[in-house]
Please model this.
Amino acid sequence: MPLLEYPMKKLLFILFIILVISYTPSLSNSDEKKGKKEKEEEHEKEEHKRGWEAVEKKYKHFENPQVCGGCHPEFFDEWKESKHSKSFTNSAFQGMYKQAISDLKGNKEIKVDVDKCILCHSPSAYYAGDIPPTADEDKWPERGIMCDFCHTVEGIKDALPHNGNFINNNGHDIDPKRGPWKDAKSPYHQTIYSELHTRSEFCGTCHNQKNSNGVWIQETYNEWKNSEWAKEGYQCQDCHMMGEGKSHPIISKEFMKADARQKVVIHRFPGFGSQIKVTDAVRLKAAANKTKVKLGEELIIKVSVINAKIGHKFPSSSPNLRQLWLEVNAIDSKKRTPILLKIEEGKAAPYDITSNELAYKDIERDSLIEGNRIYHSIFSDKNNKHTYTFYDAAKIVFDNRLKPKETRIETYKWKIPVDTTVGEVIISVKLNYRALPQSLSDHLEAGEIPVTEVAYDEASIFVVK
Ligand code: HEC
Ligand code: HEC
Ligand code: HEC
Ligand code: HEC
Ligand code: HEC
Model:
C-alpha cells in the first residue's frame, strides 16, 4: 500500500530527526533541561500571544473611557469618582472573587454563578472571553463598568431585568452611542435615542440578581418596582443621576459650542459605599418620655428611623454584606463618658442585634460592639450554615431592612444609674453604615472598611436627685 507507506516513512524520519536533535551530545544535562524549559516557555508565550491577540481585539471593541473623556470631560471625572469605575478593582470584589475561584475548585456547581461575576463587574472582560481576567495584560479588565459598555446597550433579553440580561453587540467599529437625547449630533460617533437609558430597567439588569439556587441575593430593582416611588414615576436615574453635583455642558466647550440642554445627568452615582451622601436620605428622631428624670428612675427613649428619600430598601445591594446599625449613647455633662444603651433583645434575636458569635468560616459575624440594633439580611447555605457569599446562599434566613418610606420605631429603656452626675444628659443617636464587616474584609484581605455616619439626632434630659 504505497499511499500509506510514504507518509509513514516520512513520519518515522521526522521522529528520528527530533530524537537526534533532542539528544545532541554537546548539551550537558542541566543545559539540556534548561533549553527544554526555555523552549516550552517560549512556546507557551507564543500560544498565549496568539490567544491573547484575539482576546485583546475583543477588548478593543469597547472604547477606552479616556477617549470619551476627551469630549465629555465632566462625565469622565464623575464616572472616575463612582463605584462603576471601580467595580473590578475594588478590594472587596477582588477578595470575594478570589474566594469564589478557590471555592470553585471544590464545587463545580457554582461555575455558572462565578463566571457571571465578570459579566456585571467587568463586562468588557466577559465579552472578550477573558475569564478569570488576566491580571497582567494592559489592565483591560480594570476599566470596570465604563462609558462604552453602558452606552451601547441595546435592550434586555427578558421581561424582568436581572442577572446581566442586557443586550450588547459592540463590534470593532465605532458603535453608535445610545442616550436620552433625540437630537444629539456628534462628529465622532453616531447617536441613537434610547428610552431604555432613562428607565430603571436599564439599571435593573445588574441591580437585580438571583443565584442558581433561586435565591434573590440582591433585588434593588424589584424593591423599587414594588415601592410608592415607582408608582409615582421616579426612576433610578431621577435619584442617582440628578440633583447632586453641579450642572455642566454635555461636551467640553473647547470642542464645540454645546447645546443648552435642559438637564444634564451626573455620573457619580451616589451611594454610601462610595461615600457620596445624599442629604437627609435617612432621618433620625430621638424623643425621651420625660425631660426631668430622677436617679434610679427608668427613662424610655423612642428613636424613629425614617427611610425618607431612598427608592428601595436600605441597605439594598448586597444586603448580606452591608451593615446599618443604630448606636445610642448617654453622655452626662461632667464625665462625658458615653454609656452605651443596648436595645432589648426581640423575638428576632440574635439576628436583629449586633453579635460577634462565630459565623461564616468561623469569623466574627458583625465585628461590632454587641447589643446594638442592626438592619441587614442573613443568608444560609445548603447545610443551614451562615454564609457571606452569593453563590452558596440557599435561603434568606432573616431580613429586617428599612422599606422605602418606612418609619421604624425603636424603643430603649434606661434605668438612670445612681452614680450619674446630676444635670444635663445628652442622648445621642447615630445611624452608621459599613459596606461589609471588618472581620470578613480581614478574611478576604480587602483592607480597612470605613464607617460612615448616615444620620444623627439627640435628645436632652435633666437628671435630678
Ligand atoms: C447581576 C449582576 C452581578 C453579578 C452576576 C455579580 N455581581 Fe457583585 N455586585 C453587583 C451589584 C449591582 C453590586 C452592588 C452595588 C452596590 O451596592 O454597591 C455588587 C456588589 C458586589 C460586592 C460588594 C462590593 C463592595 O464595594 O462592597 C462584592 C464583593 C461582589 N459584588 C462580588 C461578586 C462576586 C464574587 C460575584 C460572583 C460570584 C458577583 N459579585 C456577581 C452585581 C453583580
Ligand atoms: C469628538 C468628540 C466626542 C467624542 C470623542 C465622544 N463624543 Fe459623545 N458626543 C459628542 C457630541 C458633540 C455629542 C452631542 C452633544 C449634544 O447634542 O448636546 C455627543 C453625545 C453623546 C451621547 C448622547 C447621545 C444621545 O442620543 O443622547 C452619548 C451617550 C455619548 N456622546 C457617549 C459617548 C461615549 C460613550 C464616547 C466614548 C466611546 C463618546 N461619546 C465620545 C462628542 C463626542
Ligand atoms: C452604568 C452605566 C453608565 C456608565 C458607566 C456611563 N453612563 Fe453615560 N449615561 C447613562 C445613562 C443611563 C444615561 C441617561 C440618563 C437619563 O437621561 O435618564 C447617561 C447619559 C449620558 C450622556 C447624555 C448626557 C445628558 O446629560 O443627558 C452622555 C454624554 C454620557 N452619558 C456620557 C458618558 C461618558 C462619557 C461616560 C464615561 C466617562 C459614561 N457616560 C458612563 C449610563 C452610563
Ligand atoms: C453592568 C452592570 C451595571 C449596570 C448596568 C448598572 N450598575 Fe450600578 N453598579 C454595578 C456594580 C457591579 C456596582 C458595585 C461596584 C462596587 O462595589 O465596586 C454598582 C454600584 C452602583 C452604585 C453605588 C452604590 C454605593 O454603595 O456606593 C449605585 C448608586 C449604582 N450602581 C446605581 C446604578 C444605576 C442608577 C444604574 C442605572 C442608570 C446602574 N447602577 C447601572 C453594576 C451595574
Ligand atoms: C427616590 C429616590 C431613589 C430611587 C428611585 C432609587 N434610589 Fe437608590 N438610593 C437612593 C438614596 C438616597 C440612596 C442612599 C445613598 C446616599 O444617601 O448616599 C440610595 C442607595 C442606593 C444604592 C446603595 C445601597 C446600599 O445598600 O449601599 C444602590 C446600589 C442604589 N441606590 C441603586 C438604585 C437602583 C438600581 C435604583 C432603581 C432600580 C434606585 N437605586 C432607585 C435613592 C433612590
